[in-house]
């Protein structure tokens, strides 16, 4: 994470955490109580008609950390972020921001900014007008930085947001998000439609921003390998339920793979709860949770740490 | 700060639309008037004073959904959105009522040819009551549009339209069976006509409709979602 080289694009100086809610001018948490600061889903359930999008989800995104929220399409990532951003109303449970329920609470909402692929910006609005409105709605919005970032991404400020391609619409939202000093930045599929150069630039800017501000960033994605080196905490959700939530290192250490001749691999896995076994010709790879069992290992078997991507795929695959 | 910005965002949009509407109506009246003066043709200028009462609900209906999406992205809470929408619709009504009052003072033909209030209740009532009538009437009409738009967003357009049609049919059936004359008399009384009616009635009626509309919108918006 720290080996990324950074160009200076006007990163903000590190700032103190909000001790006063701009919306109500009421004191909130003490600035140094970062241990208590988090965005927390508390027994969150969301149903759309008969569809259960989130099922009793309890999850915490600690302050000052980059989190990955991983899940397949339809797993409930966007729903979770939608409730955190007040776009959706929970059926049961709640989301708390620094201890305050976020739903329709102006004070809690002022600490959260969420990007998404849901069309929320009027298509007839020009990008530079959007920059202007962001400044009027958000006290901590840096319009100059937004213009600099837009130029870095080759985003046309004179274009209408409705005329932008999918990639540039995403970029437009990322530019706004990275120019805002919200404590909790929720990025839903942040590289949707971005080409390789723009993705790289975004990750670089995100790290630059994170080092400058130490705020909470939640990246909801299914492109795990791309964010694997950035994130410190990972939560995996599937079919509206949390499968795993731990630090990235813990998750990587939570499983391993065993490879070798198919017969040897099958023998190793006998009696163990393997996530899955992939066989090709006479060779097989098994994915298991826990630590390798030294008593079962032979010199014909190789073990390796499981990658986040593999762990995610194996945990969420549904027999296909 | 956010509420102020939201009001500015919505009010500018609505007042701009209302200004364009006024310019178009003004241009139509000027053209008709010019044709009469220059004797190109003797054209009767129709009364266009009812149009603001049509414009306002249409504006509320056409802008509300997009505004909610944008304001939610900007981090506004639902009660703030209700307040901002109601206030900005009120600002547009205020603008239209001011134009109406100014026209009734400036143009001699206005009270007898274009003002819905002065034509219906008498030119002697003056521009102040004309202003108040237009403001409250537009507020009532826009709050109906606001309520309809909120219900549409909350429950879906098809359900709301079907229910509205069903309600209208029920009312018509009830009118036929209970006597249309009775209801007609009641409506006339509410609008300040007929025996024992006061000029204050339409003002109170519009204020009550505006309040009920905003209440319905508030109830619907409380659980509105953007997907």
TrEMBL record, chain A:
<keyword id="KW-0547">Nucleotide-binding</keyword>
<protein>
    <submittedName>
        <fullName>ABC transporter ATP-binding protein</fullName>
    </submittedName>
</protein>
<dbReference type="InterPro" id="IPR027417">
    <property type="entry name" value="P-loop_NTPase"/>
</dbReference>
<dbReference type="InterPro" id="IPR003593">
    <property type="entry name" value="AAA+_ATPase"/>
</dbReference>
<dbReference type="Pfam" id="PF00005">
    <property type="entry name" value="ABC_tran"/>
</dbReference>
<dbReference type="InterPro" id="IPR003439">
    <property type="entry name" value="ABC_transporter-like_ATP-bd"/>
</dbReference>
<feature type="domain" description="ABC transporter">
    <location>
        <begin position="39"/>
        <end position="264"/>
    </location>
</feature>
<dbReference type="GO" id="GO:0005524">
    <property type="term" value="F:ATP binding"/>
</dbReference>
<keyword id="KW-0067">ATP-binding</keyword>
<dbReference type="GO" id="GO:0016887">
    <property type="term" value="F:ATP hydrolysis activity"/>
</dbReference>
TrEMBL record, chain B:
<keyword id="KW-0472">Membrane</keyword>
<feature type="transmembrane region" description="Helical">
    <location>
        <begin position="131"/>
        <end position="149"/>
    </location>
</feature>
<keyword id="KW-0812">Transmembrane</keyword>
<feature type="transmembrane region" description="Helical">
    <location>
        <begin position="50"/>
        <end position="70"/>
    </location>
</feature>
<feature type="transmembrane region" description="Helical">
    <location>
        <begin position="203"/>
        <end position="221"/>
    </location>
</feature>
<feature type="transmembrane region" description="Helical">
    <location>
        <begin position="20"/>
        <end position="44"/>
    </location>
</feature>
<protein>
    <submittedName>
        <fullName>Uncharacterized protein</fullName>
    </submittedName>
</protein>
<feature type="transmembrane region" description="Helical">
    <location>
        <begin position="161"/>
        <end position="183"/>
    </location>
</feature>
<keyword id="KW-1133">Transmembrane helix</keyword>
<feature type="transmembrane region" description="Helical">
    <location>
        <begin position="82"/>
        <end position="111"/>
    </location>
</feature>
